[in-house]
């Protein structure tokens, strides 16, 4: 039996059975009007569609219709998209070419630093500061260019590029959280150095393709302490950076390592590090697995309760987008498209490039569409599994 209840869209939760919106059908973001909400990205799209109220079927919902507001908890993802602190002083394409140069320099400098550490030599953390300045400048020019580009890695440079990626993501996230110049610099340095302890691991364990044995995993779990020790030996006195190195694998519910810290006992910078670190790790291609779709990764991270600080994760989503560049999406017209650029004020309506018909499977002429000005004519109806398509083609569409 159907039991309809009208609630505010911001009160929607995963597990609720959505039974339509109270507003014009064309304005709602889904091609189906009734379905069980199981995907965090769908929940987010609903919350940001611009409609105020919706109907849920409580008889078919797996989640009771009490709201988080009633439970006295903070509503996740309810901030209006207009609060995004995006920097787009320079166009995405223009900044992409500069970001490419920075990536190359940063990878080489990080590789050199890891090699010094591997040889047991002290490193000079201050030598990283000009690089952090360049990264910060690029993020200030266009916050999406570098943080998208750093996702592209090869097997050989994974460890170094991962450090550069976490550095760039930390700077962009720090800016989004309103941190000052010093805070952004600490965040960047912490990102660049967070995994330095991996230089103390045997290379065959670090680069092992496939599952680690229990003993190998125990060894890998010691890298935060190894990194902290290396930085102390190198006379790094920045407590915030040391803390991120030691605590970027802690989880909000206390199930992380090495110390099992909980909640606010984990510093803000380390909570930021945890989000940036995991996002980059799961979206990157590895020898033994292709990277996850960026939008899918955001949805998965939202569903891992107890892992991340929700406020930090929400700010992170505003930083990279709900559909980050490189995400594969299906449009209302049936076209498949790759997200190429964000619209900071409308994260569910990025700029995309269509390239394939999902109905016929045939190539269609590549066309750039700004979904924020496409009106009702076109919009995202869902994510598309990336593994069915040529990853190199998808990346070439947005990164050139
Ligand atoms: Fe790590
Ligand atoms: Fe890491």
What does this structure look like?
The protein has 400 residues and is an alpha+beta fold. It has 3 domains: 4-78, no CATH class; 92-320, Hypothetical protein af1432; 328-399, no CATH class. It is 40% helix and 12% strand. It contains 14 helices and 9 strands. The strands form 2 sheets. A 5-stranded antiparallel sheet has the order 8-7-6-5-9, sandwiched between helices. The protein has a 4-stranded antiparallel sheet with strand order 1-4-2-3, with no helix packed on it. It is globular and about 65 Å long. The relative contact order is 0.11. Residues 65-82 have low confidence and may be disordered. The protein binds fe (ii) ion (FE2) (2 copies). One fe (ii) ion binds at residues 194-195, 223, 248-249, 277.
Short description:
By secondary structure, the protein is α+β, with helices and mostly antiparallel strands. It is built from 14 helices and 9 strands. It has 3 domains: 4-78, no CATH class; 92-320, Hypothetical protein af1432 (Orthogonal Bundle); 328-399, no CATH class.
Structural class: alpha+beta
First-residue to last-residue Cα separation = 53 Å
Percent of residues in β-strands = 5-15%
Report the biggest beta sheet as strand number plus sense, adding barrel if it closes: 5 strands, antiparallel
- One letter per element, helices H and strands E, the order comes to EEEHEHHHHHHHHHHHHEEEEEH
Structure summary, number of beta strands:
9
Indicate the radius of gyration in whole angstroms.
22 Å
The CATH topology label of the largest domain is: Hypothetical protein af1432
CATH architecture of the largest domain: Orthogonal Bundle
| Strand line-up in the sheet with most strands | 8-7-6-5-9
């Amino acid at each position: 039996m159907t039991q309809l209840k009208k609630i505010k869209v911001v009160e929607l939760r995963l597990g609720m059975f959505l039974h339509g919106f109270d507003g014009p059908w064309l304005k709602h973001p889904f091609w189906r009007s009734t379905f069980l909400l199981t995907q965090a990205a769908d929940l987010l799209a609903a919350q940001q569609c611009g409609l105020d109220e919706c109907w849920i079927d409580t008889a078919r919902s797996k989640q009771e219709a009490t709201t988080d507001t009633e439970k006295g908890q903070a509503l996740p993802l309810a901030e209006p998209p207009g609060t995004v602190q995006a920097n787009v002083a320079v166009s995405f394409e223009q900044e992409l070419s500069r970001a490419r140069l920075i990536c190359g320099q940063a990878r080489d400098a990080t590789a050199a630093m890891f090699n010094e550490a591997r040889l047991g030599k002290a490193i000079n953390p201050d030598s990283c500061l000009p690089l952090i300045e360049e990264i910060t400048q690029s993020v200030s020019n266009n916050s999406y260019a570098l943080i998208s580009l750093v996702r592209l890695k090869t097997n050989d440079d994974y460890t170094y590029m991962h450090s550069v990626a976490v550095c760039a993501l930390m700077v962009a996230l720090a800016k989004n959280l309103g941190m000052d110049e010093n805070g952004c610099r600490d965040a960047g340095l912490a990102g660049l150095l967070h995994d330095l302890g991996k230089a103390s691991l045997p290379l065959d364990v670090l680069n092992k393709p496939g599952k680690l044995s229990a003993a190998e995993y125990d060894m890998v779990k010691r890298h935060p302490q190894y990194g902290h020790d290396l930085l102390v030996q190198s006379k790094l006195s920045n407590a915030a950076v040391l803390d991120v190195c030691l605590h970027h694998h802690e989880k909000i519910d206390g199930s992380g390592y090495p110390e099992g810290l909980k909640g606010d006992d984990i510093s803000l910078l380390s909570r930021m590090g945890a989000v940036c670190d995991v996002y980059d790790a799961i979206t990157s291609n590895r020898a033994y697995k292709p990277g996850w779709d960026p939008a899918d990764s955001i949805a998965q991270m939202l569903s891992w309760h107890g892992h991340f600080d929700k406020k930090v994760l929400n700010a992170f989503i505003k930083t990279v987008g709900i559909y980050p560049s490189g995400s594969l999406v299906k449009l209302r017209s049936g076209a498949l498209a790759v997200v190429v650029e964000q619209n900071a004020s409308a994260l569910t309506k990025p700029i995309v490039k269509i390239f394939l018909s999902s109905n016929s499977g045939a190539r269609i002429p590549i066309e750039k569409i700004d979904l924020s000005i496409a009106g009702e004519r076109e919009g995202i109806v869902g994510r598309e599994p990336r593994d069915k398509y040529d990853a190199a083609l998808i990346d070439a569409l947005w990164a050139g």
